[in-house]
Amino acid sequence: MIRVTGNNSLLMSSLNTDTDNDTKVVDLLKKSSETEKSSKITGKKSEEYDSVKKSASSLKASAAVLSETGEDSIFAKAEESGDYSDLISLIERFTGDYNSLLESLSDLDTDKSANYSKELKSIISGQSEALQKVGITVDSNGKLVIDEVTLKNADKKELKDLFQGENSVAGKVADKSIYIGANAAADQYVDSCANYTAGGTSAEYVQMANLIGSYLDSLS
Questions:
Q1: Own/partner pairs for 144-152, CB < 8 Å, 24+ apart?
Q2: Which label site among 111, 128, 153, 187 has the fewest CB atoms less than 10 Å from its CB?
Q3: What sections of the chain are H helices per DSSP?
Q4: For the chain, what percent of residues have pLDDT higher than 90?
Q5: DSSP string for 159-183
């Protein structure tokens, strides 16, 4: 079987190597362990992937809290106390996190990041009129702009309809940000494989990743 150790290395134990597939996995794992340090992404590209992952995580966090339902939700607490200041602050944080993720995706500058930006913007554009009513508009770059006075005086039911629940703007953005962050991590790994050169070829390293993935899938 394959197990993941604390130092994130893959070890093989009790593996039947009679099949061609298993033999290839073993051989490629040995080669990878000898040249592990050469498979790292270097320079600016790695920082850009990290920025996307960090921004996606922050957006997911604020969007998830904003969309939460139930008696402990931020909407329920505001309705009970009559104090909506925390809710307004969270909406402001949500818009800031949204804008940061769009910027990080733009800096990454890949076809996938451009598509992710379009998907996020599509969620917002679908509710553009309702958002404008509560003081949130979209600028020429697709980023959200808040009119603080309008937002603070917005109809609370309209805010709730917009941001609470899994099918709300916040709910959909939360789901999309999880997807974007996970795919950024996966793409970062693939690019890491592409940089593998010492002691083997990039094609071999990618083949190793594919073989391990297929093998792990067969165990589930």
A1: 144/95, 144/98, 144/99, 146/91, 146/92, 146/95, 148/92, 151/88, 151/91, 151/92, 152/84, 152/88
A2: 111
A3: 20-34, 44-67, 74-81, 85-108, 111-125, 128-133, 148-152, 156-163, 169-194, 202-219
A4: 58
A5: HHHHHSSTTSHHHHHHHHHHHHHHH
Q: Which amino acid is at 139?
A: D
CA dihedral of residues 25, 28, 30, 34 (deg, nearest 10): -150
CA-to-CA distance for 67 and 75, rounded, in angstroms?
Answer: 9
CB within 8 Å of 163: residues ≥ 6 apart: 66, 67, 75, 91, 94, 169, 170
According to the model, what pLDDT value does residue 144 have?
Answer: 98
Q: What is the mean pLDDT of the chain?
A: 80
How many other C-beta atoms lie within 10 A of the C-beta of residue 146? 18
HSE-CB of 220 using CA atoms within 13 angstroms? 6
Cβ–Cβ < 8 Å for 131, 137: yes
- Among 77-81, 109-113, 115-119, 169-173, name the one with the lowest average pLDDT: 109-113
Q: Copy the structure tokens of residue 66.
A: 């904003």
Q: Is the pLDDT of residue 162 over 90?
A: yes
What is the pTM assigned to this prediction? Answer: 0.72
Query: With contact defined as beta carbons under 8 Å apart, do 159 and 146 qualify?
Result: no
